[in-house]
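Pasting as-is:
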Amino acid sequence: MIKALDSFRFYAFLAVFLFHVKLFDGGYLGVQAFFVLSGFLLTPILVDTKKNMSFRRYMANFYGRRMLRIFPLYYLYLLGAALFVGIAFALGHHHEPALVLFRKQWLYAATYLYDFFYASAAFRETPLLSHFWSLAVEEQFYLVWPLFIWLVPREKLNRCLGVVVILNPLIRFAIYFAYLRWGLSRFIGDPTRAIYGLPFSHFDAFAIGGLLALAREGRWSRIAFPLAVIAGTAGYAAQYLGADQVVWSSMGYPPFMSGGWKLVWGYSLLNLTFACILKAVKSNTFLPALFSPAPLQYLGKISYGLYVYHYPVIWLFHRLGNGRIPTLLLNAFMLAGTIAVSALSYELFEKQFIALKDRWFRKDGAELRPASARASKSQASAPASAG
């Protein structure tokens, strides 16, 4: 793992955090950056492990490693939140919207179907759960991607990834057209939010990340900065032409890609931009001073916890602050609180499961053997002169 990519994780989280504290309208795109990063990291790993493993071993290793990284924290949070809500109800807080909605929605999160609920007309936001839609999309990506990589021959993989990248804007258009043409408002809420939340909208994010991860070093990393400028300019231009005004805090892409048909082309352009930035960050050619500090790299390493905990921490601080703390100071407390909780979670809980990944599911596919057996094999294979 390239450490600078951990810093990229933190910046993606920070964008989402700033969106939820209403300081950065374009911060919701941090989730898009996470999707591209997933494709960028996992695709070459799957391509490599496919060479050395049987199908059964390949799938078992992938899912075993993913479950050890994702499930413990995910279900620990759901359990902790359920206990919190239960205690709050026992104390008489029966009318707090966040708590009521958690009780109605937790099953969607527990079954990794929250993204479909998020896109539905029945959705109501709760800071205890609503950010879990993207984790559901990631998990559904994990269901599809290893099988896709296994079935597609390596010599055809780049072409197939390119086809996904080209077709996915048409899928987003089809979802929006179906909403307008067939009156799906009874089933789908805001169509821009539905497109943002549904997994079908983001296959190209994972695909473009994988495609550039497999591409040779060079031109893609060199165009990262110019492409970022082009993407920002295109967003602001479309915003001005469509609404005759520019909202600078949205970076040209107000939630959720509203206006100017950005829900079709905006995702594609930004996915490519994020992928090129990742390519450049990996080669240490994109603003290295922003990605090299060790504290940022550590924060990126705990970014899963930062994402899981940040929205409920924001809600809790707002409830406790109750307008008595200046907004800037409150935001700083919320970020610091999120970091503290996430660091404790990572060090005391998550690392115990992460350590099992290489013990139980080694990337090279080797079977786990007792230490005594490994020692015996080492001695047997050592040259006679060593003794």
